[in-house]
Write a structure and sequence with these properties.
Largest sheet of chain B: 6 strands, mixed
Structural class of chain B: mainly beta
Order of helices and strands of chain A: EEEEEEEEEEE
Strand content of chain A: over 45%
Distance between the termini of chain A: 36 Å
Largest interface: A-B, 23 and 23 residues
Structural class of chain A: mainly beta
Largest sheet of chain A: 7 strands, mixed
Helix content of chain A: under 10%
Number of strands of chain B: 11
Number of strands of chain A: 11
Strand content of chain B: over 45%
Shape of chain B: globular
Helix content of chain B: under 10%
Radius of gyration of chain A: 13 Å
Number of helices of chain B: 0
Number of helices of chain A: 0
Oligomer: heterodimer
Chain lengths: 114, 110
Amino acid sequence: DAGVIQSPRHEVTEMGQEVTLRCKPISGHNSLFWYRQTMMRGLELLIYFNNNVPIDDSGMPEDRFSAKMPNASFSTLKIQPSEPRDSAVYFCASSPLSSGNTIYFGEGSWLTVV
Amino acid sequence: EDQVTQSPEALRLQEGESSSLNCSYTVSGLRGLFWYRQDPGKGPEFLFTLYSAGEEKEKERLKATLTKKESFLHITAPKPEDSATYLCAVQDTGRRALTFGSGTRLQVQP
C-alpha cells in the first residue's frame, strides 16, 4: 500500500518567493496533519484537518502560512512570502478516525530558504 | 499544555549492550502514548502505542512500558541497525494531534 506521499522532497528557494508543499494522505484516512521539524524545536504541529475541515491551526506561525484540504486525497501548505527562518523539514501525516488513532508520516519536504 | 521530555538526548551503546530510553509526560488526559523511530532523511516510523498504565508492547529487540507519568523504551542486545532517533509522543483525549518530545539519538557501535 502507498504511504503518505509528499512533494517536492527538496526545495531551495529565495527569500520572498512563494512555496507550495503538497500531500496525498493514505487512502481512507480521515485526519491529516502538517508538522514542521527543526533542530531547535523538534517536531511541531502546524495544523490538522478532520474530514477536510481544519480543526486546530494554532501552530501556524503567522499569516504567511496557509493550508488547504480541498478534498480527501490532497492537501497543500503554502508559505508566502518565504523567509530564511522557514527553512525546515515539513511533514505531512494521516490517520484513520478509528483503528487506534495511529498517525503515519510521509518522508517530508526539505525546504531551504536563502 | 501537553509536555513531553525525553532523556538522554543521545546514547551510544556497544552492540549487545542493553539500555533504556525515558519519556516523561504531562497531559490532561492520556488517549495514547506513541513511540516512533526516525532514520536520517526519513519520516517518523510508527513503533508502538500504549494506552494505559501497566501496558507493555514488544517488537523484536524493543519493549515499551507505560506508567502514569512516564514511558520507557527498553532495547535488549541492540544491533547497529537499531541506530536511529527514537521519538515519544502523547495524544490528549481532547485532540487527535500528537505532541512530540525532542527525541533520543541512539548509536549502536559494532
